[in-house]
């Protein structure tokens, strides 16, 4: 079982470049999430999609956009990357409100 | 806004011993969920245990158990009979609403020594 798959696993960008992080889940989950993890801090929610066709801002949405392409896929886009967006990005999904989230393996993104 | 606080940046424990990680949270809600996630060096986020606030009984999963004190807004994790494979960063998390958004603490690094 693949679970939640994130691509790429590592990426280095230059300031101002654009990039889309991909996330796909094969568990027929309704809700999907994007988090970022920075040193000394827990994961912080960037955007989420409660169900196919809906997206909402989380705690730190500035500089990002998302697309819920279909039930399986939820992408995160950086239109003009900045060094402050250097982080590890996690995608997660879950099927129902009282169920735990399942996480992907993360994408380490460095912006020079 | 809800906040989750883990006051111990690092905890060290010997193999076979017990270690307790602390977590406190702030909320005005009465119904919510609390979680402990483990993040080993592989970077995976692995669910360790979860607690539903309306349940008074403390959750247990094998060597992992929690001490949930709702009135004190405290949710500690006890790891018994510690093993080398338990070495990881542990995050406490609170589920904020029906959409399942998680609020995480800053994490506690657990070091297991032989």
Question: Could you explain how this protein is built, in words?
Answer:
With 112 residues, chain A is mostly beta strands. Chain A has strands spanning 4-7, 10-13, 19-25, 31-37, 43-49, 56-57, 64-68, 74-78, 87-94, 102-103, 107-111. In chain A, the strands form 2 sheets. In chain A, strands 2, 4, 5, 6, 9, 10 and 11 form a 7-stranded mixed β-sheet that branches. Chain A has a 4-stranded antiparallel β-sheet with strand order 1-3-8-7, with no helix packed on it. Chain A is globular. Chain B is mostly beta strands and 114 residues long. Chain B contains no helices and 12 strands. In chain B, strand 7 and strand 8 (64-69) form a beta hairpin.
Strand runs of chain B, count: 12
Overall helicity of chain B: under 10%
- Approximately how much beta-strand content do the residues of chain A carry? over 45%
- Find the structural class of chain B using helix and strand composition: mainly beta
Order of helices and strands of chain B: EEEEEEEEEEEE
First-last Cα distance of chain B = 41 Å
Describe the global form of chain B. globular
Q: How many helices of chain B?
A: 0
Helicity level of chain A, as a percent range? under 10%
Main sheet: strands, sense, barrel of chain B? 6 strands, mixed
Low-confidence regions of chain A: none
Tally of contiguous helical segments of chain A: 0
Mean pLDDT of chain B: 93
Determine the structural class of chain A based on helices, strands and strand pairing: mainly beta
> How would you characterize the largest beta sheet of chain A?
7 strands, mixed
Order of helices and strands of chain A: EEEEEEEEEEE
Distance between the termini of chain A: 35 Å
What's the shape of chain A? globular
């Amino acid at each position: 079982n693949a679970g939640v798959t994130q691509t790429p696993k590592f990426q280095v960008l230059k300031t101002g470049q654009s990039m889309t992080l991909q996330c796909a889940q094969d568990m027929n989950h309704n809700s999907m999430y994007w988090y970022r993890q920075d040193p000394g801090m827990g994961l912080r929610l960037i955007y989420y999609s409660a169900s196919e066709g809906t997206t909402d801002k989380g705690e730190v949405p500035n500089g990002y956009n998302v697309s819920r392409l279909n039930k399986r896929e939820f992408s995160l886009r950086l239109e003009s990357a900045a060094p402050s967006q250097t982080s590890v990005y996690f995608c997660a999904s879950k099927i129902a409100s009282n169920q735990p989230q399942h996480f992907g393996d993360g994408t380490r993104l460095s912006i020079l | 806004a809800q906040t989750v606080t883990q006051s111990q940046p690092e905890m060290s424990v010997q193999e076979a011993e017990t270690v307790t990680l602390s977590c406190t949270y702030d909320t005005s809600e009465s119904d919510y969920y609390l979680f402990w996630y483990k993040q080993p060096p592989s970077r995976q986020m692995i669910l360790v245990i979860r607690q539903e606030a309306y349940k008074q009984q403390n959750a247990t999963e094998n060597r992992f158990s929690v001490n949930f004190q709702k009135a004190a807004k405290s949710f500690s994790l006890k790891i018994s009979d510690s093993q080398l494979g338990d070495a990881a960063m542990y995050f406490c998390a609170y589920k904020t609403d029906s959409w399942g958004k998680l609020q995480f603490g800053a994490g506690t690094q657990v070091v297991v020594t032989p």
